[in-house]
Amino acid sequence: MLPSAEEAAQALRDIAAIKARAAGFQDYHAESGQLLLWGAAYFSGFTLTALFPGNILLVWILVVVAALVVGTGLARHTNPDIPGIAWRYLTLIASILLFCIMMNLVMWPLPAEQSAMIAPLFVATLYIIRGVQLRPRYLLIGLVLGVLSTVGFLFFQPIFWWWMALACGGTLMLSGLWLRQL
Amino acid sequence: MQTPDEIIHQPVRLKIMAALNTLSSGQWLEFVVLRSIVDTTDGNLGAHLATLEASDYVRIKKDFAGKKPRTRVNLSPKGREAFARYVAALHAILTPQNVAPEPSGS
């Protein structure tokens, strides 16, 4: 029997809703790998900074380059159907790095602890914006990252690098695992 | 006018087909992910997948991810065509010449 116009319209609405829901799951899944990777990178970077405070620049250059190489491969693997995904990914990360470098230049000289706050707060803001516009879990990730990083800067200066390893790296890694929970 | 596919028309099967149709032809969706997207129980999803598999609309693959058993589902080319026809049939129903006008004077 032929469905009525109302039934047909309802079926098309159901299809659109499922399409959006499926896109959300796929987006969360793709993002989870990057969160785990950059969480591990932040954790390693801040831990090494705590252990070797005289080699901050070298530590972060090595960590960022390693994360970029792995992240680009991960982006290609997770989104094989998106044309130019590697370039898009590299442009995104480069813009975040450029922002951090520019902030350092503009505000130079600034202590290492202040400098270390720029990237986490910028990333937290990006996730909050993404969460408001697209998917709610990103909003919570951004809020937790921003709040924990700020709390560490304001109240835990004596253990700042260790705090950031857990607050920043830990938050991102746990967020990555959370996005895999359906 | 073409009658929409009765196999797909059932609400849960429609959701399954719509979810699988978002993937490219070579991609497989894990059973647990599909269950979350469709928002149904294991038993219900399994029963409807069996119906779709019997019609060659979906393919089901069971393997192991490490030591964990894993079931994955994929939309077959026949299923993709059937879903496209189904959506076209729904749109056809909604074209102005096929929608009955509202009774006037009510």
What does this structure look like?
The complex is a heterodimer of chains A (182) and B (106). With 182 residues, chain A is mainly alpha-helical. Chain A is built from 6 helices and no strands. In chain A, α1 runs antiparallel to α2 (56-78), α4 packs antiparallel against α5 and α5 packs antiparallel against α6 (160-180). The relative contact order of chain A is 0.15. Chain B has one domain: Orthogonal Bundle (Arc Repressor Mutant, subunit A), CATH 1.10.10. In chain B, 50% of the residues lie in helices and 17% in strands. Chain B has helices spanning 6-9, 11-21, 31-38, 42-54, 77-93; strands at 29-30, 58-65, 68-75. In chain B, strands 1-3-2 form a 3-stranded antiparallel beta sheet. The radius of gyration of chain B is 17 Å and the shape is elongated. The model of chain B has no long low-confidence stretch (mean pLDDT 88). Chains A and B meet through α1 of A and α2, α3 and α5 of B.
Radius of gyration of chain B from the CA trace? Answer: 17 Å
Q: Indicate the percent of residues in helices of chain A.
A: over 70%
Q: Could you name the ranges of chain B where pLDDT drops below 50 across 5 or more consecutive residues? A: none
Reported by name, the CATH topology of chain B is: Arc Repressor Mutant, subunit A
* Beta-strand proportion of chain B: 15-25%
> Any idea what the shape of chain A is?
elongated
Structural class of chain B: alpha+beta
Calculate the terminal CA-CA distance of chain A, rounded to whole Å. Answer: 37 Å
- Helix share of residues of chain B? 40-55%
* SSE topology string of chain A: HHHHHH
**Could you say how many structural domains of chain B there are in total?**
1
CATH class of chain B: Mainly Alpha
> Biggest interface and its residues per chain?
A-B, 21 and 25 residues
Specify the number of helices of chain B. Answer: 5
Strand fraction band of chain A? under 5%
Q: Give the termini separation of chain B.
A: 29 Å
Mean pLDDT of chain A, to the nearest integer, reads: 93
| Number of DSSP-assigned strands of chain A | 0
- Supply the helix-strand structural class of chain A: mainly alpha
Output the number of helix runs of chain A: 6
Keywords (chain A): Membrane, Transmembrane, Transmembrane helix
Transmembrane segments (chain A): 58-75, 87-108, 114-131, 138-155, 161-179
InterPro entries (chain B): WH-like_DNA-bd_sf, WH_DNA-bd_dom, WH_DNA-bd_sf
Protein name (chain B): Winged helix DNA-binding domain-containing protein
